[in-house]
Each structure stands twice: as C-alpha cells, then as structure tokens.
C-alpha cells in the first residue's frame, strides 16, 4: 500500500480559555492516501478548522500523533516543521488571504521567498501557476482589481507554486456565489486528476459531492467516513 500522505492517530486539541481548557478536537483517527479527494463536513463549532489548522501545521496538537508523508510532525521543531510544510502542502483559506499591496504575481511567488528561491525563478514559477488558473493577464494587477472567484484562483495558484502533493482548503467557496464555487470546484477536480491529494472543508453537500470521500465531524470527533458514491442521494 502507498504511504499515507496524512495519518493522524488520536489527534486532539484543547484551547486554553478563561474558563479552562476547551477540547475542540477529541481524538481523531484518519488516514488519507496519495491522490485522495476528501471533504470534511459537520456543524459550526465541530472542530473542522481546528483539524485543518493541525493538518496544515499552522497549529500544534495537544494530544495524539500526526504523520505527514510519514514524518511525525506533532512534536517537530518549528523551523523543521515550516520546511516540511512548505515543500509538502498548500493551504487555501475562505477569505483568500492575498496581500492587498502586492501584485498577484508577487502574492503567488510568496511561498518561494520563504523557500529561498531566486527572483527570476520565482517570477517564472508564479507566472506558470497564474497561467494554469487562467489569470496570467492579471499578473501585474493588485488583488482589488479582480473578483472574489478570481482572487480564490490566485490563492490556489499560490498554494500550488511549491508543487505540493497536498492541498488543504478550509471552506474555499464559503465567500463565493454558486456559479463561481462550481468553477473553483472544477479547478480542484482538475488538480486531483493530476494526482494532487485534496482535503477541503465545506458546509454544502453540493460542494462535498465533488470529493470522492466525505467525513463528518461532530463535537470534536469524526463520526462518519464514506465514499461519495456509496452515500444515499
Ligand atoms: N483559538 C481558540 N480559542 C478557544 N476556543 C477556540 C479557538 N478556536 C476555536 N475554538 C473553539 O473550538 C471549537 C471548534 O472550532 P472550529 O473553528 O474548529 O469549528 P468549525 O467546525 O471550523 O466551525 P465553523 O463551521 O463555524 O467554521 C468551537 O467551539 C470554537 O469556539
Ligand atoms: Mg471553520
């Protein structure tokens, strides 16, 4: 069997609050293999973003283990973690998170700055990804110049610029109308067809139906895990 891209075992996260420790994630086991396309669903507050932030190495767990491409990252030092994160995965946010005073090309190139790639190579790589999402003509524009759906495409280009094997997206269509959402989902479908593993959070069954596998969170636990084709319509 191929090595898992993601394997979490008993993963938990408790937040320190004024009222004491709050267990947002309470022991999740999940394995995701290369090339999978998985949607995470569940009500507000069920721990989806907490889980995604752990998968994206944006936060550290308080319990359990997380193996990212076979390496246990749960207790990895910050700089080693940043390197692994940078070469392994791209993260797409609901709010696009583009830097408003930087051109789209420079926004897309940003992860390569952190990876120590030289300027000309950054420029070329960013333009290649902008072309892939159909927005090369806006390379020198600022984010405010383009629509929300286009901004999300740029954010996806930024997530792809390091050629990661894994894309994590937390409600990537949450701020988009349904037609634009479908365009974004087509893009994710194309990326998955190229072999990129995709994990996305959504509230919408129509969006989740694009994924091949759907899991559901409730009260910080994973309560169901099905292949989309086996779900009742
Ligand atoms: N930094 C934090 N400090 C304290 N509690 C937090 C923090 N972040 C999240 N929580 C709590 O943890 C629980 C899970 O939050 P999380 O954001 O993971 O839910 P979610 O499933 O992504 O919800 P939504 O669908 O609304 O985005 C919630 O009760 C939330 O209030
Ligand atoms: Mg959330």
From TrEMBL:
Single GO molecular function: transmembrane transporter activity
Q: Which UniProt keywords apply?
A: Antibiotic resistance, ATP-binding, Cell membrane, Membrane, Nucleotide-binding, Transmembrane, Transmembrane helix, Transport
Instruction: Specify the ABC transporter domain's residue ranges.
Output: 6-231
Keyword Nucleotide-binding assigned to the entry: answer is yes
Q: What superkingdom heads the lineage?
A: Bacteria
The scientific name of the source species is Candidatus Dechloromonas phosphorivorans
Whether GTP-binding counts among this entry's keywords is: no
Q: Which family does it belong to?
A: Belongs to the ABC transporter superfamily. Macrolide exporter (TC 3.A.1.122) family.
Q: Which GO terms describe its biological process?
A: response to antibiotic
Alphabetized InterPro entries for the sequence: AAA+_ATPase, ABC_transporter-like_ATP-bd, ABC_transporter-like_CS, ABC_transpr_LolD-like, MacB-like_ATP-bd, P-loop_NTPase
An annotated GO cellular component of this protein is: plasma membrane
Q: SMART domains given for it?
A: AAA
| Protein name per Swiss-Prot or TrEMBL | ABC transporter ATP-binding protein
